[in-house]
Write a structure and sequence with these properties.
Elements lengths: L2 H4 L7 E5 L5 E9 L2 E10 L7 H19 L3 E5 L7 H20 L4 E4 L1 H9 L6 H12 L7 H18 L2 H7 L3 E5 L4 H6 L9
Parallel strand pairs: 1-4, 4-5
Antiparallel strand pairs: 1-2, 2-3, 5-6
Helix pairs in contact: 2-3, 4-6, 5-6
C-alpha cells in the first residue's frame, strides 16, 4: 500500500454500509448540485456454510475492493445498537469492523449516525419502518428493480450523510449530538505502528 492509497480521496461518492455477517448492504451515491444519483449498490453475501472468520474476511475483501474501485470521500453507517440477542450484537460488531477496517486502510473517514436520525433524514419521521425507508429511498434515487432492505438501508445512511454535509455550520453542530464521531483516518505511520508492512513501491 502506498501513501497515496492511504490519503483521503477528497472528492468522490458517498458510501453507505448496512453491515451484517450474512448480508452486508452497500450503496454509493453521487451528489451534483441538487441532483443525487446511484453509482452502484448491492450486497456482499458470504456463503452461510462458512465459519465466521471466513465470512468476515470475505466481507472485508469485498468492501475494500469497492473502496479502492470507487474511491468514496466518506463511508457512513448506522451507529451500533444492542440486540436482545447478545450473540447477534457481537456478530454485527464484527461485520461493522470488517467494513470500517476496509475504509480506514484506504484513508476513507467513517461516520456513524443514530437510527432515528437516518430515518428522519430520509422519511421525515424517526419512527419510520423499513418499508417506509425503502419506499422513500426508491423514490428519491429513482431505483429500478427489486432491492432488499440491506441495500435500501445502506443507501438511506448514504443519503443521511449527504444531508448532514449540506447543513449550514450552525445546524450541523446541533445535529452532531445525533451523529457518532468519525473514525480517525489511519496514516502509513499508524498502520506501521499496528504491525502492517507498508511497501512504498506498491
Amino acid at each position: 500500500m502506498s501513501e497515496q492509497d492511504s490519503a483521503a480521496p477528497g472528492n468522490g461518492p458517498i458510501m453507505g454500509i448496512d453491515p451484517g455477517s450474512v448480508h452486508t448492504g452497500y450503496g454509493l451515491i453521487e451528489i451534483s448540485g441538487r441532483a443525487v444519483s446511484v453509482v452502484t449498490c448491492g450486497a456482499v453475501s458470504p456463503k452461510t456454510a462458512w465459519d465466521l472468520p471466513r465470512r468476515l474476511a470475505y466481507i472485508h475483501r469485498s468492501i475494500l475492493e469497492l473502496v479502492l474501485t470507487f474511491r468514496p470521500k466518506a463511508m457512513a453507517m448506522e451507529d451500533i445498537f444492542t440486540h436482545k440477542n447478545v450473540r447477534g450484537t457481537i456478530k454485527l460488531a464484527h461485520a461493522r469492523a470488517a467494513s470500517i477496517l476496509a475504509a480506514s486502510l484506504s484513508g476513507v473517514p467513517v461516520f456513524e449516525y443514530a437510527p432515528t436520525l437516518i430515518k428522519n433524514a430520509v422519511t421525515g419521521s424517526g419512527r419510520a419502518d423499513k418499508s417506509q425507508v425503502a419506499f422513500m429511498v426508491g423514490s428519491v434515487l429513482k431505483l429500478t428493480g427489486t432491492h432488499g432492505p440491506d441495500v435500501t438501508d445502506a443507501l438511506a445512511v448514504a443519503l443521511c450523510h449527504a444531508g448532514q454535509e449540506s447543513l449550514p455550520m450552525e445546524r450541523a453542530s446541533l445535529a452532531s449530538s445525533n451523529r457518532g464521531s468519525s473514525w480517525r483516518r489511519l496514516s502509513p505511520k499508524d498502520l506501521e505502528a499496528l504491525g502492517y508492512k507498508i511497501d512504498p513501491n506498491s
